[in-house]
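Ticket #4471: complex job returned nothing on first submit. Input attached below:
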Amino acid sequence: MSDPKLRNFHEAQWDEPIIFEQSVPGSRSMLIPDVSKEAAPVTGEVSGLMPESLKRSKKPALPELGQPQVLRHYLRLSQETIGQDINIDIGLGTCTMKYSPKINEQFVRSPKFAEMHPYQDDDTAQGILKLIYDFEQIMKEISGLDAVSFQAGGGGQGIYANAAVLKKYFEDRGEADKRTQIITTILSHPLNSAAPATKGFEVISLYPDENGYPSLENLKAVVSEKTAGIFITNPEDTGVFNPIIRQFVDVVHEAGGLCVCDMADYNGLFGLVRAKELGADMCHFNLHKAFASPHACMGPGCAAQCVSAELEKYLPRPRVRFDGTRYYTDYEDRDSVGKIRQFHGALSAVIRAYSWVMSLGTEGLKAVGETAILNNNYMMKRVLNEVRGITMSWAEEAPNRLEQVRYSFETMLKETGVSAEHVNRHMLDFGFQRFFPSHHPLIVPEPYTPEPTESYSKADIDEYIAALKKISEEAYSTPEVVLTAPHNGPISVLENDHIETVDQLAVTWRSYKKQHGKA
Amino acid sequence: MEKHKICLGLIVNPIAGMGGKVALKGTDGREILAAARARGAVPEAPKKAERALKKLLPYAENLMVYTASGQMGEALCKDLGLPCESVYESGKETTAEDTMRAADAIRKFPIKVLLFAGGDGTARNICQVVGETVPVLGIPAGVKIQSAVFGLSPEASGAITALIARENPVSVSSREVVDLNEDDYRTGHVSAKLYGFMQVPYEPAYLQTMKQSGFSSENDQLGGIAVYLEEKMEPGVYYAIGSGSTAKCISKRLGIEYELLGVDIIRDKKLIAKDVTEEELWNYVQKGKLRIIVSPIGGQGFLFGRGNHQFSSRVLSAVGKENITVIAPESKLISISNHTLHIDCTDEAVNNSLHGYINILCGYGYFHSFRCC
Amino acid sequence: MLHYPYIPNSNEAVRKEMLDFIGAKSVEEIYSFIPDEVRMKKPLNLPEAFTSEVTLKRHVDGILNQDSTCDENISFLGAGCYNHYVPAICDEINGRSEFLTAYSGDTYADHGKLQAFFEFTSMMGELLNMDVVSFPTYDGGQAASTAIMMSHRINKCTTALVPETMNPNLRSQLDCYCGGMKLVSIKSRKDGQLDLSDLKNKLSGDVACVFIQNPAFLGFFEEQCEEIGKLAHSVGAEYIVYADPSSLGVAAAPADYGADIACGDIQPLGIHMSYGGGLGGYLATRQEEQYVMNYPHHLYSIFENSKGQFGYARALPERTSYYVREKAVEYLGTCVGLWAVTAAVYLALMGPDGMKELGENILYKSNYAQKKLSGIKTITFPHKNSHSFMEFVVNFDGLGKTVAEINKELLKHHIFGGYDLSRQMPSMGQSMLVCVTEKTELSEIDAFVEALKKIL
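Support reply: We reran it on our side without changes. The output follows.
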């Protein structure tokens, strides 16, 4: 197979100063109407409207620029950012970087949604309430579970919301003091341990055995009368599917615990496997991943939290109900965990996800899953055969994968001194966003986790592989080229991007200036 | 003005690793070395050191390597064109004494890291002299590589050093130096000892482990572990606290004295005995209920049978798996290869009784379940 | 197989080529390792798809067009979600594909995104007069929750004192999140100001923090804020202030009256309400280890390379759950990065004078509204002796009509009346929380007053 030509790429390098450095005192880009002429005769002067103790003595030292300058500045910064729309974003695995249809942006940016207040009378909000309600029905079908909340604002909050429901469930049964432990797997997203821990659970993490997933024996060794539940991702970030998941669920159920599935790696399973068939009592889907809502510089996202009928009453409030003629907001929260996030959550993701599902339907969703699997296995075979220095864990035990693979550059590192991180930086020189290595801890050394979702064409995948091959060749012939990358990014290598003490931290310009004697 | 140079130390133990290929399990001692040579062994360590040092060549002009004469480093540096200065003159047949003297001479220079090519014996010799005063990194070249102070491969050790040569910040962590008694090892009888700790530079990409800041979260994790242990301590029960700084987090938490390299006995949050022998420990086991708090060795993951011989077969057999609490912070967990713990007691039945899965406490109420075999 | 525009490989010829390469007859053969017992037994039962964009748009627009928005009516709703003006450039920038579809890229590929994040925290730092501002979290309630847990981690105490009249939604969020903490309400005086004698009675050695909202949920400025801080500090507690950033062009920064931790919502800074979806939380402190190491969030720090270029990287990442999983102080996931970019654009557009004018405009209007409404003799203003910022409470007790009924009638005049407090704060009687912003016209306030007169 001949490889496509690689791009002679250079990202925009505007050398753009910090906005404070561009400030020209006295410049303005937004004026707010002066109402003093009409209002002051009624209210008195504004100086009398604030308590003396609270008046701001010094104006905030915000930058002062003209409107074209502000626009230009942020447009330039946008050009120094590589969104999914403008690159073949196969690298960021576990993130399910897929195409976010532009038509959906029109919906969420329309004033018909953007200018809605959450406390409007339900009669003025029948459209949005219907959409929430209808999408809940869709997510019930996709999960196979019985009730859904969209309040959680991201995957982490979705897991947290499930942990909160779990806690409440055992509190209601008077077992909260006894059921204190959560079991998860080390290859599940870190939030499957961190969010239950935040909710006050103890956490036991299981490691994969030679098959790439934890053994049933291991699970049996850790379940006990303390087990509140298991938080599990299947497939895990390795793309390996745990085929004995039902036995896992049964072991936990027999011990009196519940099963919570993190569907973060769901993209290959559309139309094939549901939470219900897995035996889960709860699950969450990231609408900003598999359901095509854009990732938006890390949010807002939305987690669809799906639960069984028994757990429905614990869902966060409000919920949307339908009485046969009218949709309404149900605030009743006697049994609920309360609020996870304000109001109904980040509904822009719900609208986009609804529209995305409605554009695909039953067969389309199945095509999404199958294409994700096809793309990944095509890429996998080529990568393992053609890119020197890359290997895959559990290659014999799990030769086929679902939607993604965790590879390793360990061989390359040992043979050339070029690490996964060096390869990662060099991807940019060919026009690709950095790849996702792995969540911590690094069970697979020198990890690399790409995910060629259904949005990428065969030609896209071929171009991506061509870059990997090129980098590998360089690692073995001219490693210094890789070691000193990126060469074509917005900035050169940041030799020191690490701080040792809190004093060295500078997350604000004022802090930076203080440390460098410029304040 | 001359550009400021990055100073490194280098000690090659030229005879390290010679026993391995001729099945002699190490080269500690002159007779064994002679035997190895007789069996056709050739120096391995200089070749491995060369593989590591090649990673430094792009930065050669910014470097100054302080080393020892001839085969102990100087010859290799000159071959490769690395600027160097020999600060210790060794004899023709190098000995452990030469390693220690060279280390002592080199550490007087402002070196960023002392690289050495060798095995556990070399690590132990260097540890004896430099302790935790300067960062040390091993190029794995010996037969026995039990200590957690070595890179994954010679290239990996070189790559970490290259980061230092490039003035990239690299974190250091306190790691165990362990050595087996080679005489016993050769006869199939294993007894290992914890010799101390060294400061080892590491970088996630090269040691598959986590970056820790100066005021690391590792301290927070050990704090969380200690609080949890304290809350769960039962009155009247003896607690035998294993060696190493991880296990001693509970002693620190309780504000009681401890012997870093030995086993201490605590009861009712008070020190009962410090640095007990196996015999003394056995007495406590017989006196009342005893629980063991122990931390595995980083890297190899040995829980018992390496460096803590006080926990003998009879002690472990009497205490039982349910009364053993295993603790480790995240960085140590990840350093353990294949997330598998090992037990190497003399009694197979005891080994077997501890096999299966063990929950390692790694924070307040947080466990990682490791296989043990 | 049908053609799906979003799935380029829904192309039989290409699929065959790929399958041939893999050596499989079908995709099903590839995933044959999935056991039957977990497979769906029949296809999903979903509504029929609108496969063309033409029909899809008609369908979704048809649903959303049933709504009637704050642009099409006169809205006096606030209570945690505010109808501020969104400058066009905010939408222009956050609609850019590069930002909208970026995710977790870092120092190099997403240099511009990180600079925008850094500028967000920097400008918030100026507004708040604090050196450390974190990457924003889900909403103000989450920021407040973390602020309280942060105080607990710092001083190990377990009681948090909060105003009884705080935002009830926020309170519900705190109740859910702050497990192991005891949330104790501090009473209010008649004029709404915090009852300091009650606060003093409740101060003890176990108080982790004293939390206030300023402006308060019910709209007025808490004038004793400096004294409250001193009282909190007298028992070693942290002083947490939840402040509306849109007030900070005219109101003192929390740090200036002693706050140790500031938090709140950034939705007022250029982000549309979107039915409550436009929220984002900020959290800020002094630059001290006890605070910094207790942030669960990303902290993007600025660095300079040898070429004199600025770059950004996540600092002290070992704090976060991405690195140490359950051992982190709290979990951290995808939050609201796009709103950080948007708020940065907003603050850069507004500048110091814009923020001042914004505050003054709102002050005039809320006072104008109260003055005008006070012409209706039968209604009362429980907090009239306090100074309100953007919102104020109007009480309708004894008029024979509930707020719900009044709001229904206002709707006929295309007016969304204030938030009905009777559901969540029954002790306030039949009260509504009226909100005005720079978008509210004086004439709209007049129309509101006239409509109310007719209704009452």
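Chain C touches chain A through 211 residues (CB under 8 Å). Closing as resolved unless it happens again.
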